[in-house]
Amino acid sequence: MTERRPRAKDGLDDRLARRVWIENVRPRVDGGEFPVKRVVGEEVVVTADVLADGHDRIAATLRWRPDSEERWREERMTAAGNDAWTASFRVARPEAHRYTVVGWIDEFATWRDELEKKFAAGQDVESELLEGGALVRSAARRAEEPDRAWLADVADRLEAGGDPAARVERALADDLRIHMTRWPDRSRATEHDRVYAVEVNRTRARYGAWYEMFPRSYAREPGTHGTFREAEARLPEIARMGFDVLYLPPIHPIGRSHRKGPNNTLRAGPGDPGSPWAIGAEEGGHTAVHPDLGTLEDFDHFREAAASVGLEVAIDVAFQCSPDHPWVREHPEWFRHRPDGSIKHAENPPKKYEDIYPLRFDGEDWRALWRALRDVVLFWAGRGVRIFRVDNPHTKPLRFWRWLIAGVRERYPEAIFLSEAFTRPKVMYALAKVGFDQSYTYFTWRNTRSELTAYLTELTRSEVREYFRPNLWTNTPDILPEHLQYGGRAAFMARLVLAATLGASYGVYSGYEVLEAEARPGSGEYLDSEKYAVKSRDFRSKGNLAHYVARINAIRRDNPALHSNERLRFHDVDNEQLLFYSKTSEDLDNVILVIVNLDPHHTHAGWVDVPIESLGITEGEVYQVHDLLGEGRFLWRGRRNFVQLDPASSPAQVFRVRRKVRTERDFDYFM
Amino acid sequence: MTERRPRAKDGLDDRLARRVWIENVRPRVDGGEFPVKRVVGEEVVVTADVLADGHDRIAATLRWRPDSEERWREERMTAAGNDAWTASFRVARPEAHRYTVVGWIDEFATWRDELEKKFAAGQDVESELLEGGALVRSAARRAEEPDRAWLADVADRLEAGGDPAARVERALADDLRIHMTRWPDRSRATEHDRVYAVEVNRTRARYGAWYEMFPRSYAREPGTHGTFREAEARLPEIARMGFDVLYLPPIHPIGRSHRKGPNNTLRAGPGDPGSPWAIGAEEGGHTAVHPDLGTLEDFDHFREAAASVGLEVAIDVAFQCSPDHPWVREHPEWFRHRPDGSIKHAENPPKKYEDIYPLRFDGEDWRALWRALRDVVLFWAGRGVRIFRVDNPHTKPLRFWRWLIAGVRERYPEAIFLSEAFTRPKVMYALAKVGFDQSYTYFTWRNTRSELTAYLTELTRSEVREYFRPNLWTNTPDILPEHLQYGGRAAFMARLVLAATLGASYGVYSGYEVLEAEARPGSGEYLDSEKYAVKSRDFRSKGNLAHYVARINAIRRDNPALHSNERLRFHDVDNEQLLFYSKTSEDLDNVILVIVNLDPHHTHAGWVDVPIESLGITEGEVYQVHDLLGEGRFLWRGRRNFVQLDPASSPAQVFRVRRKVRTERDFDYFM
Lengths: 671, 671
Fold this sequence. Notes:
The structure is a homodimer.
Chain A: E1 21-26, E2 36-39, E3 43-51, E4 58-66, E5 73-76, E6 78-81, E7 84-90, E8 97-105, H1 107-120, H2 126-142, H3 147-159, H4 164-172, H5 174-182, E9 190-191, E10 196-201, E11 208-212, H6 228-231, H7 235-240, E12 245-248, H8 296-308, E13 312-317, E14 320-321, H9 326-330, E15 346-348, E16 351-353, E17 357-358, H10 366-382, E18 387-391, H11 398-411, E19 416-420, H12 425-433, E20 438-439, H13 449-461, E21 471-473, H14 482-502, E22 505-509, H15 546-558, E23 569-571, E24 578-584, E25 591-597, E26 604-609, H16 612-615, E27 622-627, E28 633-637, E29 640-645, E30 652-658
Parallel strand pairs in A: 2-10, 11-12, 11-22, 12-13, 13-18, 18-19, 19-20, 21-22
Antiparallel strand pairs in A: 1-3, 3-7, 4-5, 4-8, 6-7, 8-9, 8-10, 14-17, 15-16, 23-24, 24-25, 25-30, 26-29, 27-28, 27-30
Helix pairs in contact in A: 1-2, 1-4, 2-3, 10-11, 14-15
C-alpha cells in the first residue's frame, strides 16, 4: 500500500473508505522496482494477502495485460489459506506484461453464509430474505441480458413472501451464486496501487546449449589464420553435437599497440594474431569485421550458414578499446587521461594491460558515448544478431546497462543478453535486475555435493530465480578448472552432465569435447591459450566426447523437464560422492532423475531416496527408470533404490521415469 | 531504486551517470511502505547494499533527521562485507525520524590503494603523484580553513617533484587520509531515492506491566456498585505490586435495552449492571462517565490518584453502541439498517448480540463518523489520558485506524495504542503496520516449550519485530486459559514469570493474584464473569501471589535486559518440560537467564546449555548466577549446568549472571 499518511488536516479522501487491504503481492523483485522474468508460454502464478476487517467474505481478482494493450484482463483469485489468494496468467507474447490485484467485500457471499446459518438454527429469516432480494436486484441492475431478467426474477421471488424454506432454497441454490459472481458490486473495491511488471522473452532466454569457438582457428591450412568462410566447414559438426547457440569472441579488428604474444606475453611477434578483446585498429572498431576473418558480408554468410544447421550466432559485446581504435583519435574525451595527457590503460595494480583502454562512463561527454555504444549493439542487431554475450559487464555502470538493454529491447524484443559477470554475488544479481537475461555463474568452480547443492538451491529456490537465469559453463577461454586438469575423461563427462542437466542453459568452450586439459603451470588457465594464438585441434582424437555431447544434448531436447530450472530438486543418497536430483516438466508428465558420481577416480555406489510422493508412486510400487545416457532400463521399487557408477564407463545416469510397468493385469488373458 | 525504465527517446537524464547503486536498505517494513518503530533512546542500525562497477573504492553515508528538522545529519557507513554497509543513529525525541543512504565513488581511496601497490611493485609513480596532487588540490577547494591551507600545501608537495619515496610517504600518511575523508567529492553521489521512516514513541510503548481492573467492583460495601472514589483505595496495593499501567474497561454509561444478565444471560435483572462494552445510554455515550462510577471530575481525580502512586491509567476504546446510545437517535446513518428500517445488531450467526449495534465504517456519511470517533479519543486525551487499549480493532477498517492514530499522534505524540486483536495473524500484523504501538498476542494459549519457542521467535527474530510489539497477557476478562483452570498455584506462578520475562510488555487481569480459576463448565471463560456483574474479591486470601507479583515486577524494573525483547534467545535444556532463555541489555552488562518448569504438577530437572560465548565466559570458567526470585546463589561452570525446579515452591528461577567469582587470586596474600 503506497498511500501515505494523510498530511492534510483530515485527509479523508475516497480511497480511505475501502475496507479491503492488499499486501505482499508476489512475485516481485525488490518490492516491485524491477520486473520478474518469464519466457513466452510460461505461467505467472500471482499470490497476494487480501484482508478485511471483521468476518465478511472477500473476493479478489488478478488484473493483467500485455504492455501494448490498454484493457486489463482478469482472473478471479481463489483463497489459499491464511488470508493468501492466488491466480495465474500465461504470457503469450515476447513483450512486457503488467499485473496487479483488486479486492472487494463480497456482500452476497457474506449474506448467503449468514442466511444458511440462521435458517439452520431455526431463526426467523424474513428480514434476511428481503436483504437478499435487494442484493440480487442490485446485481440485476449491473447485469446484461439474459442475466438481468433472470436475476430480477429471483429477486422478486425472494421478496415475494410465502414459504420461507422454498425461498431459502432458492437463495442458496448454486445457479444464483454463479450468476451473482458474474456481476459483483465493485463500487468500493480496493485497487492495489502498485503495478508489477514481467519481462517476457523467447524460450532461448531460458533454455539453450551454447558452444564457444574462435573462427580464426578453423583455417583449412592448420596454423594459419582462418576466415569465416573456412570456419563454416565446422558448423555441421557443431550442429551434430546438438548445440543451439554458437558464441563467437569479438570479431573486430585487433589492435597492434602493445599486442599480446602467446601465453599473454608482453611482446607479440609479427605473426601473432593478438587477443580479440583488444578491439579496434585502423581497419575499424566495434562495427567492423577483422579483415583476416573476412568482410561484413562473410560474417552475414557465416551467420546464415549456422542458422541453416540450427545454430544461432551470438557475438561478444566488449566495451573497451585497443590504443589503435578509431574512437581514441575521434573521441579522446571518452577515455581517462593521465596528467601528462596520455590515455590511461587498463590496470589492476600492479598488473598493467597496456593493450586496452577502458572507456569512461561518467565523463563530461557520457551521453554521446552511451549512445555510440548502444548504436554498436543496434548495428549488429540490424545485421540479424539477436544474442549478445557481454564481456565484463560489471566494469560498466549498472544504470548504463539498464538504459542500453531497454533501448535495444524496444526495437528488438527478442534480443538476449548474457552477462559474463564473474564478480561479487550482489553485483551479479544487480546486473540481472537491470535487464540481463542470463548470467555466467560460479558453477565453473563448484565441485562437491554440498557446494553444488547449496549454490543451485540458491539460484533456483530463492527469490533470485524470479530475475536471475544461470548459464552454466564447464570451461571458458579464461578458465580451465582444476577438476578438469586432473580428473581426466570421467571429469569431463561428469561436468558436462552436471552443466547440461542442472542448467536449462549451459555452455562449453571448444576443446572440451577433445578433453583439452593442459594448463599453464600453477594456474587455472589454458596453456597456449587460444586468446593469444591460432589453435588447431584434432576433433577426431581417440576418446573424444562428440558422441557423448550429442547424446546429452539430444536428451535435453527430448525432455521438457530439462528446459527449465524451476522444478529442480535435490534428493538424498547415502554416499557423499554421489549427487542425486530430479527435474520435472511443468505438466509433471516428464520426470528426469540424474545421478552423478563426482569422484572421477573411483566407482561409487549408494542407496538413493526417490521422491516417490511427488511422482505419485507408492512405497510398494514397481516402476521403470530408463537411463537415457546408457540405454539401460531398471525396475525400481518404492523410495530406496541402489545405484552404482563406474567413472571409467560413465560417471552419470540420466533416468527418465516410466511409470507404467506391465503386470499380469496388462496381459490379454488375465481375468 | 524507484527510477523507472527510460520512457523518453533517450532518457539520458543526469542521474543515470551516477555509478553507485544502492539497494536493500534495512530496516524497512514492506519495502518502506510503513515505518519501523523505536522508543526514545533506542538505536536504529541501518544497513544497505552499496555497489559500483569495477574495482573503485566506495564511500557511503547514512542520512537521518527528526521529522521536524529540515537539515539531514550524517553518519559515515562502514563496510560490513559482501557489499553491505552499515551505520546507526539514536532517536532522542518522540517524533518520527527519516533516514536514507547516499553513496559515491571514493576517488582518493581508490587512488591511494593503487599508488601503494604500484610503488610496492617498484613501478614509476610520477604520473600517479601528479594525479594525487590534483585530487588533493580539488579537496582543498571544497575545504574550509584550516584544512584548506593544509590540503593545498600537501598538494604542492605531491606535485613538487624530487624523491618519489618521500612524496609517496606523504601521500599515504594517515593524516592526509583523514583530511580527505572530511572533504569528499560528492558531486556524482547517488542519493537513494527512497526515504524510510521510523516512528518514535516513549519507553512505555515498549516496556510496561499492565493491570486490568473494573472500578465498579471496588465498593466499600461488597456487592454494591463501586465508584471511582471508592476504587481509589485499591490503587496503593496495585502500585505495591509494581505495575506501571492501570487499564480500565469502558467507563461509559451502559445501555439498558437487551442488557445482559449474569453469565451472559439474555435478560438482566433490575440490579444487574450490564456489560461495560454495551456503551451508551440516555446519560451519554463515548465521552460520558457512567453515573454509578461518578463524574468526569471523579475520573480525573482517580487518574491523578493513580499517577501519584506511579500508575498511568489506560482507558478502553470500544467503537460500538448500545441501542440506547445517543448516536442511534442523532446519527442513524452511522449504523446498518434492516429492510424494515430497524438497526442491525451485532451477530456471529447463529449467535446474536442484541445489546450491541456495530458502526458502519463505509456508509454514506463515513467521514462524519470517522471524525466523531477520532474526537472521542481526542476528548480523553484532552483530559490527560495517553494510553488507549482498543477493543476488537480488527472489526474496523485498517485505513480507519491508520488515519485515526496519525491524527491523534499529531497532537499527542506520546499517545500509546494497544490493539486487542485476537484475530488472524496477518490482520494482527497489519494493525501494527498502520500504527498500533502494541498488540495482544496468542501467548495466552501457548503453553508447551515448542509452542512458546516458535511463537516468541517469530515475534522477536523475524521482520515482524520492526513494527509489532507484543503485550503478553496471562488472562483477560474473556479468557481463563485451561492451563490456569487445572494447573493450580504453580501454573499461575509459571505463566506470570513467562509473561513478565518473555515480554517487555505484559499484563494481568485482576483476580489473577488470588488464583481465580473457576470457569463456566466446558469453556475458557470465567464463571460469574465480571463483565456482567460486580465482583468482590478477598485480595488477602491464603496463598495469594501479591508478593510474588511484586517480586517479579521489581526484578523487571531493576534489570534493563527485561525492558526489551530484542535480545531474547532460547537455549537448549535436555528436558522438554523446562524452558530456558536469556535476555541481555543493549550494553550487554545486564544478563538474565530464566528457567521455567512448564509442568505445574511435577518436579523436573535437567542440564541447561548456557550460551557462554555470548557472555564472554570460557568452558572452564566458574561464574555466579543469582536467582532474583528465590534469592539463591549458585556457582556454575562452563556451558552445561544442572537445574531442578519443584513447582510446589517456585516453578521458575530468574538468574542474574554475576561474572566475577572470587578466587585465591583475589585474596590479599596471594602472590
